[in-house]
Amino acid sequence: MKSYNKLVRDRIPEIIEDAGKTPITKILPEEEMETRLVQKLEEEIQEFKESRDFEELADLLEVIEALAKLRGEDLYTLERIKADKKAERGGFENRILLEGVED
Known about the structure:
mainly alpha; 4 helices; 0% strand
C-alpha cells in the first residue's frame, strides 16, 4: 500500500476506484479540518512554485474557498476584504520591490 495521509478532493476516492484500485480513507473530525486545509494550501503553493502551472492557481483558490467556508465566510466576503486592502495599500501592478528603508 502506498501511503499519502493528506486531504484530497471529494471525488478522488471514486477516481481511484474507477482505476481499479482501492482507496483507504477516513472522514476527518471537524476540529482537524483547518490544520489539514493549511497543509493542503502549503502543498498547492509548493506545486505552483515548482510548475508555475496556471491550473495550480485554481487549486489554491479551491483550498482558500474551503478555509473561508470553514470559518463561516465565503469568497464574496474575501473578495470585499481584498478590494478594501487594495484600495488602502494598492495592488501589485507597478512591480515595486522595496529594497530597504533609510531613517
